[in-house]
Amino acid sequence: MNVKRVLVTGGAGFIGTHLSRRLLREGYQVTVLDNFLPQVHGDCRELAVDLRGKVELRIGDVRDKAVFHEALLDKDIVVHLAAETGTGQSMYEPVRYEQVNIGGTALLLDFITNNPKSAISKMVVASSRSIYGEGKYRCDAHGDVYPDARGVEELKRGEFEPKCPVCGSACSVMATDETSAIHPSSLYGITKQVQEQMVLMYGQSLGMPAYALRYQNVYGPGQSLNNPYTGILAIFSNLARHGKKINVFEDGLESRDFVYVEDVVEATMRCIAPSSQGVDFFNVGSGVPTSVLELTQEINEFFGGKSAVEISGDFRVGDIRHNFADLTKIRRELGFEPQWRFADGVKEFLKSATSGNEISQSYTASLDEMKKAGLYFESGK
Ligand SMILES: NC(=O)c1ccc[n+]([C@@H]2O[C@H](COP(=O)([O-])OP(=O)(O)OC[C@H]3O[C@@H](n4cnc5c(N)ncnc54)[C@H](O)[C@@H]3O)[C@@H](O)[C@H]2O)c1
Questions:
Q1: CATH topology of domain 5-136+175-377
Q2: What is the pLDDT of residues 266-292, one digit of tens each?
Q3: What is the pTM of this model?
Q4: Helix segments in 37-115, DSSP class H
């Protein structure tokens, strides 16, 4: 078999680093295009030590047509991970999010359609669970329903659970499958929806295999500890390590589907594999909801329970209440089965999380920015 050449955009990032390792192990030739966004990488402009010299590194921006197109030359497969990733931040930096996430994807498609030298024969794009906004719920009277983003006034009253959009009564959260309504509640989610639609539509039109992977909350070793806009695990683990107070928003019962990075890599590899020749989209998660309070307790205990945990009732506009993945489709189509339980994965992450002392300060600064933009509310203020 000819060695396949893969371009991983955003390959210096969290998921990209784990994916690049696995691609190398499986005999692929890997090139990374990454601009080393300071918000993610701090001052570092190098790949993980074990990848240096094994992966071709191109430092550059996916908004730069010449640089991106040059990196795409002579590649067989592109895995497009480069993106701005902060849900809250996207709400007050819409132009940057639109330009990087949507604009970058447009440049990828421009290369594939307009460059006669393109050898790209497959595209894989990182989508997100955020395209679902609030996921699927069940109302006793109205069956499956998709609540809209929660309003500021109801959140101020401490009414955190989404209501049936038809009758306004209580409804219960369900696993979100791929046929669930797409209705993002952040600009980030909108950019992910559009990225996914762009790649899949071009895949269909060109007869080229293309996959969009709707990752849930990915965690694991190597996750950026510098980025105050993403990764509650990274933020809380820094606070817990230093015994600082942990402010749990809402009532702590909001939940997420935390999926270990090696499981995400496995799902992605199954799309990269030569046997995958379709145009399709999949949920990638653990399939299990974990509340933010459970997660906080797990982290705090790991570091000796030094932090006071305050369930504050604070909230951020655009945050969803619950979402967890229905994995029926990816199990059936790709034979994917998550291998990591949260209790095990979180320990691996916490063992590795040794740096990032600055985060609690930059996290507070990020909340200040959201407050200024009218997107963060402190309870009782
Ligand atoms: N981590 C998660 O929980 C999660 C969940 C859903 C979807 N995703 C998606 O998966 C992908 C990878 O996420 P991650 O967690 O590895 O994030 P990450 O921030 O660790 O990695 C993203 C990488 O992209 C690079 N990048 C950002 N803007 C760029 C630009 N303009 N040009 C070139 N490179 C740029 C960054 O420097 C970084 O190395 C993203 O598309 C993200 O939206 C992640």
A1: Rossmann fold (3.40.50)
A2: 999 999 999 999 999 999 999 999 999
A3: 0.93
A4: 38-41, 65-72, 87-92, 94-97, 104-114
